[in-house]
Specification:
The complex is a heterodimer of chains A (about 140) and B (about 220). Chain A is mainly alpha-helical and about 140 residues long. Chain A has one domain. Chain A is built from seven helices and no strands. The longest helix of chain A is centred in the N-terminal third of the chain and has 25 residues. Chain A is globular and about 40 Å long. In chain B, strands 1-3-2-4 form a four-stranded mixed β-sheet. Classes of the chains: A mainly alpha (about 140), B alpha+beta (about 220). Chains A and B meet through helix 6 and helix 7 of A and strand 2 and strand 4 of B.
Chain lengths: ~140, ~220
C-alpha cells in the first residue's frame, strides 16, 4: 500500500464511525434503498447494503470526497451548516460566507421539492460546482 | 459573482436590448398576436450567444419536468441549464429571464435560481422569491419585446451605482434629488406591485416617465 493510501486508511479508520453516523442522521426518513437508488441515478454505484454498512462505520474503504458530497446531496435533512460540518468532519473546509450558506439552503429546499428527473439534473450540476466533477469523470463510472 | 461584475451584466443587457428591438421590428406582425416561431428562434439564438460570449455556459437538459431553467453561480463559473423541450418563444423568454437573474444575483460566491414551468411553482416558495420571479418575468418579457423602456430605468442597478445625471449648482442638485427619488419610488413600486408593473409598461406611462426623466436630466445637466 502506498504511503498516501496508508495515511488515508488510518485517517478513515478514525472518522468512519462519526461520518457514518452523520450520514445516517442526514438521511432522515428516506429508506436506504431509495438513497441507494438516488446515488445510482447520480452516477455512483452504492448498493443498499453498502449504504447500511457505511452508516454503521463498518466499511474499510474510505468514502471519497466526491462520494461523500454526492451522498450528502441525496440526503433528506441536509442543510448548509450540516454540509459544512460533514465536510469539516472529513477534513475539508467550505470557504463560504453566511450569505452563501443561506443560498445553499435555498438551493437544497428547491432541489428537494423537484420531481426526481429534475433533481438528478440539478444535483449533477451542483456536484460540478462544488467539486469540479463532470459526468465523464472516472468517479461517475 | 465570478467571471464578471454586475455592471457587466448591465452592459450585456444594454447591448442585447437594441438588437432584440431591431430584430423584433423586422418581423411581420402576426394576425393572431404573439411572436412568430421563426422570430422567437432568432431571439433565443441571439440571447444564448450573448450569454455565451459573456462567459456564461448555456446547457440544454432533456427530461426536466418542473423546471424551465435553473442557474448556478460559483467560483467555477456561471452556468444556466434550460429545458430541452421548450418551444422557441418560451426558450427565448427562458434565456431572457436568466439574463435578468444574472443582474440580480450579484456579489455572491455561490448563488442559484430556479425558474419553474407554468403551474409547477412549489408551495414553499417565499413571498420574496415570488416577487423576484414576477420582476424577472416582467423584465424578461420587456427585453424580448425590445421594450426595455417599459421597465424602470435603474431597476437592475444598485443605489450606489445609479447616477441620475451630473450636478452643479443648487437647481441641478434639486433636480437630481427629485429624479433620484422618483426612480427609487418607481423601483420600489415595481418590486412590490403587479399592477404597477402593468401600468409601467403601457405606452402613455413609458412616454410620461421618459419626458420626466429627460426634463429633470436636462435641468441637471
Amino acid at each position: 500500500m502506498a504511503e498516501r493510501d496508508a495515511v488515508q486508511a488510518v485517517r478513515w479508520e478514525t472518522i468512519r464511525g462519526a461520518v457514518g453516523g452523520r450520514l445516517r442522521t442526514l438521511r432522515g426518513g428516506r429508506s436506504q434503498a431509495v438513497l441507494a437508488g438516488d446515488l445510482e441515478d447520480l452516477g455512483y454505484r452504492v448498493s443498499q447494503s453498502s449504504v447500511c454498512r457505511y452508516e454503521q462505520g463498518l466499511v474499510d474503504a474510505p468514502l471519497t470526497l466526491e462520494r461523500l458530497v454526492g451522498w450528502a446531496l441525496c440526503c433528506e435533512s441536509l442543510s448548509a451548516p450540516a454540509f459544512r460540518e460533514l465536510l469539516a468532519l472529513a477534513g475539508f473546509q467550505l470557504p463560504w460566507a453566511v450569505a452563501d450558506l443561506a443560498a445553499m439552503d435555498g438551493t437544497l429546499r428547491h432541489t428537494r421539492s423537484l420531481p426526481l428527473p429534475d433533481q438528478i439534473v440539478v444535483r449533477r450540476r451542483l456536484l460540478w460546482h462544488l467539486l469540479g466533477l463532470e459526468d465523464a469523470d472516472p468517479e461517475w463510472a | 459573482m465570478s467571471g464578471y461584475a454586475a455592471a457587466d451584466v448591465q452592459t450585456l443587457i444594454a447591448v442585447v436590448a437594441p438588437r432584440l428591438a431591431s430584430l423584433r421590428a423586422t418581423l411581420p406582425v402576426p394576425l393572431a398576436g404573439g411572436v412568430p416561431e421563426a422570430g422567437s428562434r432568432e431571439q433565443a439564438t441571439l440571447l444564448r450567444r450573448a450569454l455565451q460570449e459573456w462567459g456564461v455556459e448555456c446547457r440544454h437538459a432533456g427530461g426536466l419536468a418542473a423546471l424551465e431553467a435553473f442557474g448556478i453561480v460559483s467560483a467555477r463559473g456561471t452556468e444556466i441549464t434550460v429545458a430541452g423541450d421548450l418551444p422557441a418563444a418560451e426558450l427565448a423568454l427562458a434565456y431572457a429571464r436568466c439574463l435578468v437573474r444574472l443582474a440580480l444575483e450579484r456579489g455572491r460566491a455561490f448563488a442559484t435560481w430556479f425558474h419553474y414551468r407554468a403551474g409547477c411553482v412549489p408551495a414553499h416558495v417565499t413571498a420574496e422569491e415570488r416577487r423576484a420571479m414576477a420582476v424577472v418575468d416582467a423584465m424578461a418579457r420587456a427585453l424580448v419585446a425590445g421594450r426595455l423602456e417599459a421597465t424602470p430605468r435603474y431597476l437592475l442597478q444598485t443605489r450606489d451605482a445609479a447616477h441620475y445625471g451630473p450636478a452643479s449648482g443648487p437647481w441641478t442638485e434639486c433636480s437630481r434629488a427629485l429624479l433620484g427619488g422618483l426612480h427609487r419610488a418607481s423601483n420600489a413600486l415595481y418590486w412590490r406591485s403587479d399592477s404597477y408593473q402593468a401600468i409601467r409598461a403601457t405606452t402613455p406611462m413609458v412616454a410620461l416617465t421618459s419626458r420626466v426623466h429627460a426634463l429633470l436630466s436636462a435641468t441637471a445637466a
